[in-house]
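Private note to self, pasted from the team thread so I don't lose it. C-alpha cells:
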C-alpha cells in the first residue's frame, strides 16, 4: 500500500483551506430550496465516513505505531467494501457487528478531529471513473490528431491508456477530496443492521442521521 499512501498524501498536500464544521449547514440554509441539495451534501459526508470506517476495520488486530495526522494509514483490507447512499452506507465483508459499531464511531471521531486523509481511499469507484474519463478523453484526442491508419490509431490508444493509468490515481484522490467526499461534521450514527442491498447481497447497513450545526 505504499503507492496508495503516497497518493493519499498528495491529495491533501495542496490545501487551499481547512474544512469547517458549519459549511454544509450554512450552505443548506442559504440554498435549501434547491431540490436534492441536502441529499447530495449528506451523500458526500456518508462517503467519507464509509472510507474511514473501512480504514478503521482494516487496522483491527494489526499492530500499528503512532503516525502524524498528515500520514494516511498504509494498510488496507481488500476483502472489505462499501456503498454509500444519502441515508447511510452498506458495508460488505466478514465483520463483527460490535467491531463495526466501534469502527464507525472511531472513524467519525477521527475525521472530525482533523484526520482528513481517512476520507479518501485508493479503492474508491471515483478513481475508476476518473481513469475511464481520462482514457476516453485521451483516446479521442489521439484519434483526432494522429493519422487514420490502423497502426497509428492502435499506438494512440495504447499511449492514451498508459497516460491515463499514470494520472488517474492522483487525480482520483483529488476528485474524492473536492467532489465526492466531505468531512462528516453533520452526521451521527443512528443504527447498524444486517440487510440486503438492491442486488440481493448481504451486508450491514450503517444508518446515519443529519444534525444541523450552528
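Design output:
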Amino acid at each position: 500500500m505504499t503507492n496508495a499512501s503516497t497518493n493519499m498524501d498528495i491529495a491533501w498536500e495542496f490545501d487551499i483551506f481547512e474544512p469547517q464544521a458549519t459549511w454544509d449547514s450554512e450552505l443548506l440554509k442559504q440554498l435549501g430550496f434547491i431540490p436534492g441539495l441536502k441529499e447530495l451534501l449528506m451523500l458526500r459526508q456518508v462517503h467519507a465516513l464509509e472510507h474511514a470506517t473501512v480504514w478503521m476495520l482494516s487496522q483491527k488486530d494489526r499492530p500499528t505505531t503512532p503516525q502524524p495526522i498528515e500520514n494516511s494509514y498504509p494498510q488496507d483490507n481488500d476483502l472489505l467494501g462499501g456503498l454509500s447512499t444519502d441515508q447511510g452506507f452498506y458495508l460488505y465483508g466478514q465483520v463483527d457487528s460490535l467491531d463495526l459499531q466501534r469502527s464507525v464511531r472511531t472513524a467519525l471521531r477521527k475525521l472530525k478531529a482533523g484526520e482528513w486523509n481517512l476520507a479518501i481511499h485508493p479503492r474508491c469507484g471515483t478513481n475508476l471513473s476518473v481513469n475511464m474519463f481520462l482514457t476516453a478523453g485521451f483516446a479521442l484526442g489521439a484519434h483526432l490528431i494522429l493519422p487514420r491508419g490502423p497502426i497509428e490509431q492502435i499506438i494512440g490508444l495504447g499511449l492514451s491508456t498508459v497516460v491515463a493509468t499514470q494520472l488517474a490515481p492522483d487525480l482520483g484522490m483529488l476528485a474524492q477530496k473536492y467532489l465526492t467526499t466531505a468531512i462528516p461534521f453533520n452526521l451521527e450514527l443512528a443504527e447498524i443492521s444486517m440487510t440486503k442491498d438492491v442486488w440481493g447481497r448481504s451486508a450491514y447497513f450503517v444508518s446515519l442521521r443529519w444534525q444541523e450545526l450552528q
